[in-house]
Amino acid sequence: MGFATDAIHVGQEPDPATGAIIVPIYQTSTFVQEGLGKHKGYEYARTSNPTRAALERNLAALEGGRFAFAFASGMAAINAVMSLLKGGDHVVAGRSLYGGSFRLFERVLKDFGLSFSYANTCRLEEVERALRPNTRLIFIETPANPVMEITDISAVAALAHERATPLAVDNTFMSPYFQRPLQLRADIVIHSTTKYLNGHSDGVGGAVILNDAALAERLKFIQNAAGAVLGPFDSWLVLRGVKTLAARMLQHDRNGLAVAEHLARHSRVKKVHYPGLPSHPQHELAKRQMTGFGGMLSFETGSFANAKTVLKSVRLCSLAESLGGVETLISHPATMTHASVPEDERNRIGITDGLVRISVGIEDVEDIIADLDQALGSV
Ligand code: P1T
């Protein structure tokens, strides 16, 4: 079946007990057993819950993977993947990552004996140079938050596999509608479902999707043992959200391109980072690896004062962290999402004080553009 059909139907068969067309919210902590060891597949809701299991089946299908696990947040999903490692292991991570991933690595996981090297993963030779004999994972985000750097997933996967090292890809920005890393031979896909998968800015969640049975078994063990699971109501919200993923992503993509093209022509905008623009340094790779460019972009206003003016002046666009919802969100990475990245590192990546990020929503695009124009008019 096609993607939109799977999004609506996989894991979402009518409820066998009642015929309800919508998967029920199994708001229960435990399941009564008929006798010792005799139950209907569910024992305790941290281990497994039917609403969460439905979502996990659905997300596995959308990413083209065999196994999926849902977590309490994107960060909990990333932490679970990192829990596959042990003290002394080394990770090569992309230098461009969501600030919270960097914070988890540097301020939590280092204390458990993991070590991290950050590479410009757009350059294969830099990934290769960062590898060590004890490298046990390569972790990338593509497109990367917020400057939209693109990493060649198949090329990094080939390099990783030469060393029998798994490659994990945070696919939050594209969603499986526009990019399927497992098909490009990545081993682990991570999502903050808070973003496009939920799509309506009303729940925080995360997911990990993979094909390898041994890794999946270990991850399932970690999900249950550490317990950062997605609750039944939040699982249900994501199940509802994914049904319109295909329709929403098409509109995010149309609006994203229109806003990016408009800003690129704007006299008060110095630079636009959007993979769908031919001026993007990896536009050709983006066309090859993704089937659309999505709704995320960032642009350079030239100074902190200019960025502040734009963010203060918008009326339709909401100044807020997060992304991927139907409404347009605008933010200042240097002081918001990437505040935990040291300033010199931020400048190296291009997260300047004048950089503004937009998660272009699916409102009428003329209204979004008019709002940005009036805000830029105040600069
Ligand atoms: O917020 P949470 O659901 O825990 O997801 C973390 C996360 C993981 N990966 C990527 C690529 C992300 O962008 C995020 C969260 N990002 C934001 C909140 C933001 O505004 O960029």
**CATH homologous superfamily classification of the largest domain:** Type I PLP-dependent aspartate aminotransferase-like (Major domain)
CATH class membership of the largest domain: Alpha Beta
DSSP helix fraction: 25-40%
Tell me the strand percentage band. 5-15%
**DSSP helix count?**
14
Radius of gyration: 21 Å
Oligomerization category of the chains in this entry: single chain
Structural class: alpha/beta
* Associated small molecules: ligand P1T
Q: Would you write up a description of this structure?
A:
With 379 residues, the protein is of the alpha/beta class. It folds into two domains: 3-242, 3-Layer(aba) Sandwich (Aspartate Aminotransferase, domain 2); 245-376, Aspartate Aminotransferase, domain 1. It has 14 helices and twelve strands. The strands form two sheets. It has a seven-stranded mixed beta sheet, with helices on both faces. It has a five-stranded mixed beta sheet with strand order 8-9-12-11-10. Helix 4 (99-107) links the parallel strand 2 and strand 3 (115-119). Helix 1 (3-9) packs antiparallel against helix 2 (50-63), helix 2 (50-63) packs parallel to helix 9 and helix 12 crosses helix 14. The longest helix has 21 residues, at 245-265. The mean pLDDT is 97. Ligand P1T binds next to helix 3.
